[in-house]
Design goal:
- The chain is of the alpha+beta class and 429 residues long.
- It has 2 domains: 4-97, Beta Barrel (OB fold (Dihydrolipoamide Acetyltransferase, E2P)); 114-417, Bira Bifunctional Protein, Domain 2 (BirA Bifunctional Protein, domain 2, 2-Layer Sandwich), CATH 3.30.930.10.
- The chain has 14 helices and 18 strands.
- A hairpin with a 4-residue loop joins strand 16 (341-346) and strand 17.
- Helix 5 (124-146) packs across helix 7 (231-252).
- It binds 4-amino-1,4-dioxobutan-2-aminium adenosine-5'-monophosphate.
- Residues 162-163, 182-183, 185, 206, 208, 215-216, 219, 221, 223, 352-356, 396-398, 400, 402-403 line the site of 4-amino-1,4-dioxobutan-2-aminium adenosine-5'-monophosphate.
Length: 429
């Protein structure tokens, strides 16, 4: 048994091989049955005719339906007209499951394709998205391991909020209520005291009512937290991480990027350094581009689209006003009206993919912030303890992996970047 990609290589030409997979296309012309077989590695054409196939086998081969599962054996030949310039001349055929009409065709609308996502994941387009996604997740892990970070895990059921109460999911918990986590950040912060450099990849949950290109209610969050780092150190680390992830995708997924229609040359130019632009200046740039923005406004997907269409590389937005960021962000000692933080905005209209920065590490400042935000100290007793015992300066970040895949693959919406998106209107399949 070999894979399709192996069958497309030089070494099997003229040999008898066996392949397994699914029917991608099938048609018969006169006394010949043509079958294009798909497996996880690609597609290859096979041709069947008597007497190499028995009369029964030929009958089956000439009436195969799309996505039926089959096993075929035969001699591999070179054929310039066939995809991959190879053709398998079949001498045996076995069917595992013969389908009635497969319900999926590309020209169906977005909602239909989401309803049958369990079948659409087999399409060549979605297979390519899954492969790009695989590289993004793997290279995130590989990058941080290569830099001496430890991977850690945090609970998903929590009793605190990191990013404000309005996007919390409440779930019943033995007569009480807990929240689904919005971010593993606070738990990562606990672990820098033992490991100094930590990261995690886990789902985060946001009860976001928005139905923009970039909102999921459950998304994959890659987060890092580092002892002794300041905001600039963190941004430098993120630049190197982004360079690595993009270079790995360009190394392993060119064919996939082409299949989903990504302009690869643009992606090749995304290397760091990335500009650092203060929030105040971003507001000015937005207004120069025709938006009506005021200092202190939170930028939504539409505003970020206009602004980032203006850039051809990711940009860091820094120095946000205190009022726009969560309570844990450290005010800039020189300009206390702003915090030492950053958002990384992807270019080409995509917008925010990372949020990060320095954390407040002084106990009295954090206590005051909790008070200012109307948050009960008791719920955060353990988070405050970190500022009581051996507290240190530190920074961290959170990267939305689904948003990153959406941008890297040049997809229209985040719903196309994840196999089973969860949004306000979708919990199935
Ligand atoms: O900016 P956010 O809310 O920051 C945090 O959660 C921090 N506690 C992270 C940290 O410092 N450890 O979220 C971080 C990133 C965003 O930049 C975005 O990419 C992604 O998470 N994100 C979402 N992705 C998909 N759907 C949503 N509803 C998202 N909300 C945030």
């Amino acid at each position: 048994m070999i894979s399709v990609s192996e069958a497309l290589s030089e070494k099997y030409v003229g040999k008898n091989v066996t392949l397994r997979g699914w029917v991608y296309r099938a048609r018969s012309v006169g006394k010949k049955a043509f079958v294009v077989l798909r497996d996880s590695s690609g597609i290859i054409q096979a041709v069947g005719e008597e007497p190499a196939l028995s009369a029964d086998e030929f009958k089956i081969a000439s009436s195969l339906t799309v996505e039926s599962s089959i096993e075929i054996s035969g001699i591999l030949k070179e054929d310039k007209r066939a995809p991959g310039e190879r053709e398998l001349v079949m001498n045996s055929l076995k069917v595992y499951c013969r389908n009635d009409n497969f319900p999926v065709t590309k020209d169906k609308g977005e909602e239909f394709l989401l309803d049958i996502r369990h079948l659409w994941v087999r399409s060549r387009e979605f297979t390519s998205v899954l492969k790009i996604r695989n590289t993004v997740f793997k290279s995130f892990n590989d990058y941080f391991y290569s830099q001496g970070y430890y991977q850690v895990q945090a609970p998903m059921m929590v009793s605190t909020a990191t990013e404000g109460g309005s996007t919390l999911f409440k779930v019943p918990f033995f007569g009480q209520e807990v929240n689904l986590t919005q971010s593993s950040q606070f738990y990562l912060e606990t672990m820098i005291f033992s490991l100094e450099k930590v990261f995690t990849i886990a789902p985060s949950f946001r009860a976001e009512k928005s139905r923009t290109w970039r909102h999921l209610t459950e998304y994959w969050h890659a987060e890092g937290e580092v002892a002794w780092y300041g905001n600039e150190d963190m941004m430098k680390e993120e630049e190197k991480m982004m360079d690595y992830i993009i270079s790995e995708v360009l190394k392993h997924n060119v064919e996939d990027l082409e299949r989903v229609g990504r302009d690869i040359n643009k992606l090749k130019n995304m290397n760091s350094p990335f500009l650092r632009i203060p929030y105040r200046r971003i507001i000015e740039i937005g207004n120069e581009l025709g938006l009506k923005l005021e200092y202190g406004m939170d930028l939504g997907a539409d505003e970020e689209r206009t602004i980032t269409n203006h850039f051809d590389k990711p940009v860091f937005v820094t120095d946000f006003p205190v009022s726009l960021k969560s309570f844990y962000h450290r005010p800039d000692p020189d300009h206390p009206e702003t915090v030492l933080c950053h958002d990384l905005l992807a270019p080409e209209g995509y917008g925010e993919i990372i949020g990060g920065g320095e954390r407040i590490w002084e106990l009295d400042v954090l206590k005051q912030k909790l008070k200012d935000f109307g948050m009960p100290e008791d719920d955060y007793y353990w988070y405050l303890d970190l500022r009581k015992y051996g507290s240190i300066p530190h920074s961290g970040f959170g990267l939305g992996l689904d948003r990153l895949v959406t941008w890297i693959a040049g997809l229209k919406t985040i719903r196309d970047s994840i196999p089973f998106p969860r949004t306000i209107r979708r919990t199935k399949p």
